[in-house]
Amino acid sequence: MNKNIFITGAASGIGKATALHFAKKGWNVGLFDINEEGLKEVANEIGHNSCMYKKLDVTNLDQWTDAVEAYSEYTNGTCNLFFNNAGIAAFTGRIEDIPIQEAHNVVNINLNGVINGIYKVLPLLKETDQSMIINTGSVGSFLPVPGAAVYSATKFAVRGLTEGLNIEFAKHGIQVSELNPWFTETPILNAKQSTPLMDGALQRDVIKSKSVIHTTDKVAKRVFKIYQRRGIHNVVGFTGNLAVFIMRYCPAIIRRMSRKMYADYFS
Q1: What secondary structure does DSSP assign to 37-87, as a single string?
Q2: 181: pLDDT strictly greater than 70
Q3: Enzyme catalytic residues
Q4: How many domains does the chain have?
Q5: 265 lies in a domain?
Q6: pTM score of the predicted model
């Protein structure tokens, strides 16, 4: 019997690439996203014999209930892998320049949406041998991200959630892991700049001038390896691993570099 995966944020970016990669590996794929038109495009690319899709706003508990019921019918009540991936970073800049409602929206999607998914998908995971949750964090789960502090805070929280639930769910045979990508070619790099003349923390052109930006295909392949190897935290790419290493053992270096880079905007 083919294995199955439930993916949030599946209409674009890492979620879409992961859906395509797992489908090529012979998995049955459940596609979920607030962007229904995008879901249809991904489903057409995969082929409807190998996937199902349903619109899902991860902040809406009623939609979660409907999504999980539809997925459960598709998979006969099982879930091998829950890729808890949906997230946003719509604005970058000084926190006082970003509308507070937008900050709350980031928390609601990036953290509360992840928590909602765990509550709702857990019964299916309990019914499946050696099931797994992979939460999408970030290298920003480990590093200061001035200009995207609330986004980074949600990713720090996801890291803590992953650590705690990996211990808590061991009694059910459920592995809880985390994907920690470096900068990746996703819609997050289209974040609007709220602070005038600021080199945005997540803006594509600025990042390209200073660092590598990974393809979504590279990250999707890492998701598959995480499922096979079952490590807890999984930083993607040499640059990301180096930054996390320095932050762990010489955090003052990272903090000094960040202060220098953004001195004109936060002093």
Answers
A1: HHHHHHHHHH-TTSEEEEE--TT-HHHHHHHHHHHHHHHTS--SEEEE---
A2: yes
A3: 151
A4: 1
A5: no
A6: 0.94
